[in-house]
Amino acid sequence: MPITSGGANLFFQLVNARYEKGAMILTSNRGFAEWGEIFGDPVVATALLDRLLHHAVVVQIEGASYRLRRSRSTLMVT
User: Which domain range does residue 15 map to?
Assistant: First the structure.
Protein backbone atom coordinates (compact mmCIF):
# COMPACT_ATOMS: atom_id res chain seq x y z
CA MET A 1 0.00 0.00 0.00
CA PRO A 2 1.27 3.47 -0.74
CA ILE A 3 2.38 5.56 2.22
CA THR A 4 1.00 9.07 2.67
CA SER A 5 3.48 11.92 2.27
CA GLY A 6 3.17 12.64 6.00
CA GLY A 7 3.88 9.00 6.82
CA ALA A 8 6.84 8.94 4.45
CA ASN A 9 8.30 12.04 6.06
CA LEU A 10 7.82 10.62 9.57
CA PHE A 11 9.49 7.37 8.57
CA PHE A 12 12.38 9.31 7.03
CA GLN A 13 12.75 11.33 10.23
CA LEU A 14 12.86 8.12 12.28
CA VAL A 15 15.52 6.56 10.05
CA ASN A 16 17.47 9.81 9.94
CA ALA A 17 17.43 10.07 13.74
CA ARG A 18 18.69 6.47 14.05
CA TYR A 19 21.28 6.83 11.26
CA GLU A 20 24.72 5.69 12.47
CA LYS A 21 23.47 5.44 16.08
CA GLY A 22 22.30 1.87 16.25
CA ALA A 23 21.10 -1.15 14.36
CA MET A 24 17.80 -1.37 12.50
CA ILE A 25 16.17 -4.38 10.95
CA LEU A 26 13.64 -3.79 8.19
CA THR A 27 11.79 -6.22 6.00
CA SER A 28 10.03 -5.54 2.74
CA ASN A 29 8.46 -7.55 0.00
CA ARG A 30 9.24 -4.78 -2.51
CA GLY A 31 12.47 -4.07 -4.36
CA PHE A 32 14.33 -0.83 -3.78
CA ALA A 33 13.37 0.40 -7.26
CA GLU A 34 9.71 0.42 -6.16
CA TRP A 35 10.22 2.53 -3.03
CA GLY A 36 9.84 5.85 -4.88
CA GLU A 37 6.35 4.83 -5.95
CA ILE A 38 5.45 3.43 -2.53
CA PHE A 39 6.61 6.55 -0.69
CA GLY A 40 5.05 8.80 -3.32
CA ASP A 41 8.28 10.79 -3.65
CA PRO A 42 11.41 9.44 -5.32
CA VAL A 43 13.58 12.07 -3.59
CA VAL A 44 12.46 10.99 -0.10
CA ALA A 45 12.84 7.32 -1.06
CA THR A 46 16.37 7.93 -2.37
CA ALA A 47 17.40 9.81 0.78
CA LEU A 48 15.88 7.07 2.92
CA LEU A 49 17.62 4.30 1.01
CA ASP A 50 20.89 6.23 1.14
CA ARG A 51 20.82 6.16 4.93
CA LEU A 52 19.49 2.63 5.23
CA LEU A 53 21.98 1.06 2.83
CA HIS A 54 25.12 2.98 3.83
CA HIS A 55 26.34 0.36 6.32
CA ALA A 56 23.73 -2.28 5.51
CA VAL A 57 23.87 -5.98 5.04
CA VAL A 58 21.06 -6.83 2.63
CA VAL A 59 19.69 -10.35 2.82
CA GLN A 60 17.55 -11.23 -0.16
CA ILE A 61 15.40 -14.31 0.21
CA GLU A 62 14.05 -15.88 -2.92
CA GLY A 63 11.62 -18.71 -3.42
CA ALA A 64 8.12 -19.61 -2.41
CA SER A 65 6.61 -17.90 0.60
CA TYR A 66 6.81 -20.01 3.73
CA ARG A 67 3.31 -18.92 4.76
CA LEU A 68 1.83 -19.70 1.36
CA ARG A 69 3.54 -23.07 1.26
CA ARG A 70 2.14 -23.82 4.71
CA SER A 71 -1.40 -22.81 3.75
CA ARG A 72 -1.23 -24.88 0.54
CA SER A 73 -0.28 -28.00 2.49
CA THR A 74 -3.18 -27.33 4.89
CA LEU A 75 -5.58 -27.00 1.96
CA MET A 76 -4.36 -30.27 0.48
CA VAL A 77 -4.85 -32.16 3.76
CA THR A 78 -8.45 -31.03 4.35
Answer: 5-77
